[in-house]
Amino acid sequence: MHDFLFYGLAGLLVLSSLLVVILPNLLHGAISLIGSFFVTAALYILLQMEFVALAQIMVYIGGIVVFILIIILLTTRLGEESLAPGPGQKVWGLAISGALGGLIFYLVIDSIQPENVAMQADEEAGGLEQIGLRLLDTTSDGFIVPFEIVSVLLFISLVGAVVIARKDK
Amino acid sequence: MTLQNCLILTLFLFAIGVYGVLTRRHLIGILLSIEIILNAANINFIAFARFTTADPTAGAIFPVFVMAVSACEMAVALAIIISMYRHRKNLDVRELEALHG
Amino acid sequence: MADLFLSYSYLVLLWPFLAFLIIGLWLGRYNRRAAGLLSVLFSGLSMVCGIGITYGYYRRVLARPHLFPDKTLLVNQFDWLNISPDLTVRMGIYLDPISVMMIVVITVIGFLVQIYSLGYMEGDEGFGRFFALLSFFAFSMLGLVVATNIFQMYVFWELVGVSSYVLISFWYHKPAAVTAGKKAFIITRFADAFFLLGIIMVGYFIGNFDFQDLNAPETAAILNKMFMVKGIGVNLLALSCLLIFAGGWGKSAMFPLHIWLPDAMEGPTPVSAIIHSATMVVAGVFLTARMFPLFAASALTLTIVQLVGAFTTLFAAVIALTQHDIKRILAYSTLSQLGYMMFSLGASQVVDNPTTAGINPLGYSASMFHIFTHAFYKCLLFLGAGAIIHTIHTNDIGRMGGLRKAMPKTYWSMLAACLAISGIFPFAGFWSKDEILLGAWQSGHYLTFGVGLLSSGITALYMFRLFFMVFHGQTTFGRQLKTEDPLMSFSIVILAIPTVVAGYFSKEIFSAYFSSPMVWAADKQLLPGHPLWLPVCANLLAVTGIIIAWYLYGRGDLSHVRLLTRRRGIGYQLVVNKLYIDELYLFVTHKIIFSYIAAPIKWFDRHIVDGAVNMVGRFLHICGTGIRLAQNGQLTVYLGATAIGIILLYVLGRLPI
Amino acid sequence: MDGSTLLTSIWLLPFLTGMLIVPVGRANHQLIKKISLTGSGFNLVLIIWLTLLFAARVSLAETGVDTRYTVLYFTLNVPWFSMLNIAYNIGVDGISVLMLLLTGIVIFCGVLASWELKEQAKEFFILLNVLVGGVYGVFVSFDLFTLFLFYEVAVLPMYLLIGIWGTGDKEYSAMKLTLMLVAGSALIFAGILAMYYESGIASFDILKLSRIRFPESLQVWGFPALFIGFGLLGGLFPFHTWSPDGHASAPTAVSMLHAGVLMKLGGYGCLRVAMYLMPEGAQMWVEFFLVLVTINIVYGAFGAIRQTDLKYITAYSSVSHCGLVLFGLLAMTYVGLKGAVLQMVSHGLMTALFFALIGMIYSRTRTRQIHEMGGLMKVMPFLSVAFVIAGLTGLGLPGLSGFVAEATIFIGSFANANPINRICTVLAVLSIVISAVYIIRSANFAINGPLNEKFNALSDATLVEKLPIAILVFLICGMGILPGWIINLVNSAIEPIVNNVTR
After folding, report:
1. Distances in whole angstroms, Cα of residue D448 to Cα of each of C179, D195, D313
2. pTM
3. A121 contacts in B (CB within 8 Å)?
């Protein structure tokens, strides 16, 4: 059952991601990205990481992609086709991404043997409580410092984005 | 559903993302492709957290950080895009070559 | 008193040098007249010193032959250039019969020419400059003749060359004068390069530059054995002698390096007079005489000296027959007379046969004797020519005529000089030329002797052609000519005295004292005496020449000449154009050196060598442009390159190196 | 002041002078020039003082000196980067003293000759002072690294000096000159580092290194690297092409300094570093370089024959004459080395005079083409006579400095019994005829002949201009007439070098 679900989700994921990069209309691509993120969230749930799945939906879909959509609508006239890649560019892109993918595939096959790893039964590991405790943990394996840094970073980029996007006088 | 399967899935996603980055001519299109790549990385984190004995919680925390950083990135990138669009009325990366040597 | 002059003998050089400095640096620009007078005064003082040295030298050396067997006295020596601990160049004053004779000739003639120049250069813009340079010229020439070593001689040799250059191109605004100066300088310089090479060679092998060492019998022996490069057999003795002689070859304008001399007539006439009579051109003969003991050891050298001299004698005499410029005729006559001096030195080598061998001292002393007599009458001829040119402002003898009445002093003096150069008894030229011919005859060089005899006939012909065309015939100058300048006439008339008597009175001196270098060379010889037919024959030839000249030119009727020149054969064309030697030189210098060596080198440098440098630059530029292409500002391309880079990194990491 | 302080102040003074100019207002040209002149004049006085001190010391130490090794006077050795054994190691021997003297004279005359400079005088004189400081530094340093440092300081300002104040195709010339010289520097630095590591004592000290016999495998490439590296600056064929363009484009004072002094750095480096430290390498390569240098001499002279620009003529003659410096060095004999040193001095004075004169003539006629001039003797007799004197020095007229040097070189080179040396000597001697041709030709075109009417109104040199000319002419004549004093200075320095070179 799990496997079946996994393969189905994986297929959907690949398909929707593919649509993101090849749809000529950006708006469609962005919408497809939403789909892709939803499928990712489902995959996380399948891997028993509910919190991450929730965060994925809230941050990515609710925040980022919507934001992107707004920008697309702001900046681009709908159905703009003139920015389609040329055939040469496609070939090059295909070749390079294929080569890179092939390289990683080779590495994956080469180094990760199936028998080395097994599915963990620990249900609690990725749970909300664990994550929360760990994030605010002040001991050496806690994540309090990165957590604070990220909050500062978020603040800075907020201010920075406002400054950059502000209309020049 | 094994680690290897997950990794192969993400490498497909990564390759798709790279392909998008290389072929998209619209700046936002490139951003979208980057999101796919980041997403692939996140899935990898989760997969490793789930399938190895190390520290699954840490594996779960990392995507959260990635999301935060990518949100920052998006905010700044989109601000730049808006400002650029305002100045040049164009977001074709081929036209954006002020850095050429 | 005598010793005083000897101890301060450097003063003979110092006076003209001081005159040069004072006039050149200061006086010449402020007061020209004073500059001229100062120069004359200083050259007079120099002359007094010169005569004093002669007196002192006679009292100290010649009167005491037992103390000075080689009649040589070195005074005022000092170290000049310390080349290495073993090799030091000294400067000093070398007194022996020939240098003392040269001192007298140079100072006396220099003094007279300076007096003459006061008149001749009157009103010239460069009056002060002229006297400064003339003084410098005298200084360098005196330095040359008193040189104690060959290096010192080379130093002053070059100074003579450069001062002749500036004097010949004295009127620097005249292109012809400038070109003539350039020609004189470069041709003598060309010869001097070989001279310098010879000096370096001799200096290296002997380890010394002093004439006394170079002329010592051992030197010839040392050089005769050595070879320059193993395998390539070069007789160093002949080689170094010939290299040194090359300097004299150029300076004395022997064929084929003679072409600068006629052109040097573009300078002011007093300069021509001093260059031709006493100074520059006889330097070559002087050098040969100075190195004579060494040269005498090399039969090849003396043979070449003789052949070159004899050929130049005849060649120049024939060319002089056809020239029309009065100064050029005199220039070719100088060449011819220099040829006499030169072949006389060469012909002192006695033809080897069972009874005679070695060196005939007569050839040497006759050559020196001829330098002495020639100096006076040739100077007189030039000064006379200058006076004529000064009066009628043309050099072309075809446009002269009938000047006998207008310039009586010049006329009579020139007559004496023409008789002297033709070798008519008892004028000065007769005695020296007679000895030269006798020397050649005694030594057994009958061909050279014949050339000399024939040339003396031709000499009489061309000199009297000049004489008759200038002074006789119709007067072409209707208007009243200005009278002769007293200063100029003074020098001319004074010079007429030695022209007449110098030969007879100094004959004994020369035969008595001027054979010293041959002490070691001439031990077995049995030479014939002085046959009476020789001078008679020479005089008859000369008189015949004069009669022919009179017949052709002296009667005011040039129809015979026209008849002769109308049938212009190839020979005549050749002679009038001086055998086309100037054209040959032009061809060599312009066509070959300029066009086929210098121009290609210029091209090579600009295009190949420089081109190579530019090519390197261009290559780097192309590389840069190529790399710049990659930096095209395209985000996509950068990312693609990054991806390729990652792949390549991995591949490189896995390569089995 | 003791000797080593004197040495330090000699190279420091130009830098101080340069710094002193910095606060002066840009428009205050007069003050800037006066500061420069005072600085260089004072420095010249210091150098003359040093020379006298040195002469006194040498004559005291005349006897009993060990001639196997170079003896330095006024030494000071302070490590300034002790980790790598780099020291501020200064001192002088006769050659250095002579070179310092030459530099002092040339820069003094150079400042006077650029008295009329108008544009950006401040920067010009600052750079000029920096350059000269570098040159002095090279001549007093006996630590390879410090020497190299000063060498670079001396070479690099040239780029700006030519590129900004030059004439004609100045950017090209400046770029070419700088790039070629920097390429030479790279070779030199490679050689220096190789010696540093191979010596086994990890030292840059020239005197210490001179006692070490480097392995042949190092010398076989080290010597040509160093010789070409320094020879580049000395105009070695076929790396001389920066010289004609560079000299032609450079402003007067820079040409004077460059041809007069900087090209001597090349010869000095070849002598002091390449040949002194790698004698076996020199023996291996001597014939090859001898042929190159002979080509230099003959080729430079032929190159000058067809040029029509006075500066190009002089630049090619510099190539020929600097070839003679290297030629004297490669003779590998005592006399040849001495001749090379003399030729450095002689050529420095002569070429400085030449370029000063050309600058002054150019500032009047506004042309350097000899065909466009003519008859200048009439309107500017002083400059013309000086020009003729400079030319006569160039063709080696006795009584002027050139002859003493050239004759010594020829004698020294002929003394080497190697047949190639002999043949090359013959060729080099014959090249003096070619020198005569191009010098007399340019003098005849430019100075003699009928006066071009355009130039009727031109004036002769002013007093400020006459001064440097008079100094240089006086020294040229002085060296030519009484060469003894210079020879006495260098005698003691040459012997140890020869002993080392022929060890």
Report:
1. 10, 54, 17
2. 0.81
3. none
